[in-house]
Amino acid sequence: MINGRTRLHVVANGTMTGQRYIDEILLPHVRLFRGAVGDKLFFMDDNATCHRTLAVQDCLDSEGIQRLLWPAYSPDLNPIENVWDALGRQVAGRNYPPTNKNTLIRALTEECDKLPQQLLDNVVQSMVRRVECCITLHGGHIPY
Questions:
Q1: pLDDT(140) > 70
Q2: Is the dihedral of CA 8, 9, 15, 18 positive or negative?
Q3: pLDDT class for 68, splitting at 50, 70, 90?
Q4: Which of 72, 117, 130, 135 is the most buried (most CB within 10 A)?
Q5: Which residue intervals define the domain Tc1-like transposase DDE in the entry (predicted)?
């Protein structure tokens, strides 16, 4: 978000399922964030299969969380990809790159905390252009 951020939350063990996504991401994090932001929050995920279950949609609906709909297989339209790219470059550029899962999680968390706020602000501000692109792809209709 502009002028702020949350801590990176890493889900590292097992396979992410729709129910796990609800229990570990949506309810403890997204729901609380929506409560802080209010009705202006538009939630965006990356179209992963576990994000598209009926249970996930029911959860979002019951919490009053509006999801932005994005075309499948269009990571260029998803601004989080820019953040992941910057984060990946930071982790790869460390003097001592991660050698196992635990050091990778630590490196991701530390480097995420160091990402410049201006980078995050720019990504959020780019949403206008990205949404306009999606509107064009959806035949002039706002995709939510």
A1: no
A2: negative
A3: confident
A4: 130
A5: 21-97
